[in-house]
């Protein structure tokens, strides 16, 4: 909504017609728009402008300190435009959209909570289907015989005969240790949660006719 220069008679007449259907320049409470028009008007209007006169005296009844607290409003001080009742309809439409009991916010909050719960459930389902990481270790064992007359092939055969859930035997070789004696160096991969290295070495040492001792030569997490 706009009207012309309110310092002119024409502009004041337009303002009078504008206020004939309104208590304030913008909205239903005094605002900065009222203050702007009030200050530009400068003085009380003529008595033949009853609506402007009523509005001016009302705005003048507020102190300057009170006027500073007024919120922003849409000022219609745009030269050349003519008054219309459209803003009243807009205000009425805005009022119709106001939810005095906040039910709209509650519905939005409930919808947001539902979406959040669905996303959390989908994430949990996806995570539960993801295969768990199995911790494994690669181990190299030194299996030492009693002497140079020990049947090393039989020793290896007995060692490989040990079967445990989570145990896989790998490559092996004979490594000289001196005086014609070789040790069996054998690799294995174990699942940490299923195979105890201490138990494995004890089982190997149970072949006491062939095995003197068992040492861990290398141990690496996979």
Q: How would you describe this structure to a colleague?
A:
This protein is of the alpha+beta class. Among the domains are: 61 residues, no CATH class; 86 residues, Ribosomal protein S6/Translation elongation factor EF1B (Alpha-Beta Plaits, 2-Layer Sandwich). Helices cover 42% and strands 20% of the residues. The protein has eight helices and four strands, in the order H-H-H-H-H-H-E-H-E-E-H-E. Strands 2-3-1-4 form a four-stranded antiparallel sheet, covered by helices on one side. Strand 2 and strand 3 form a beta hairpin. The longest helix is centred in the middle third of the chain and has 27 residues. The protein is rod-shaped. The two termini are 76 Å apart. About 10% of the residues have low confidence. This is Elongation factor 1-beta. InterPro entries: eEF-1beta-like_sf (IPR036219), EF-1_beta_acid_region_euk (IPR018940), EF1B_bsu/dsu (IPR049720), EF1B_bsu/dsu_GNE (IPR014038), Glutathione-S-Trfase_C_sf (IPR036282), Transl_elong_EF1B/ribsomal_bS6 (IPR014717), Transl_elong_EF1B_B/D_CS (IPR001326). Keywords: Elongation factor, Protein biosynthesis. GO terms for molecular function: guanyl-nucleotide exchange factor activity; translation elongation factor activity. It holds the Pfam family EF-1_beta_acid.
């Amino acid at each position: 909504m706009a009207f012309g220069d309110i310092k002119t008679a024409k502009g004041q007449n337009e303002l009078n017609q504008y206020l004939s259907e309104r208590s304030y320049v913008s909205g239903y409470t005094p605002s900065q728009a009222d203050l702007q028009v009030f200050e530009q008007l400068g003085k009380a209007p003529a008595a033949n402008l009853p609506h402007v006169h009523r509005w001016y005296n009302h705005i003048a009844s507020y102190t300057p300190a009170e006027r500073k607290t007024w919120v922003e409003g849409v000022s219609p001080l745009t030269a050349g435009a003519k008054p219309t009742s459209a803003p009243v309809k807009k205000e009425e439409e805005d009022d119709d959209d106001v939810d005095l009991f906040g039910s709209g916010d509650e519905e939005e909050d409930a919808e947001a909570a539902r979406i959040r719960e669905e996303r959390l459930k989908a994430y949990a389902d996806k995570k539960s289907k993801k295969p768990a990481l199995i911790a494994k270790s690669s181990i190299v064992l030194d299996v030492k015989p009693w002497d140079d007359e020990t049947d090393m092939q039989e020793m290896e055969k007995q060692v490989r005969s040990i079967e445990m859930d989570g145990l896989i035997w790998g490559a092996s070789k004979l490594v000289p240790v001196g005086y014609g004696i070789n040790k069996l160096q054998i690799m294995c991969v174990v699942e940490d949660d299923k195979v105890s290295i201490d138990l494995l070495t004890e089982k190997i040492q149970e072949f006491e006719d062939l095995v003197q001792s068992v040492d861990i030569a290398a141990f690496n997490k996979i």
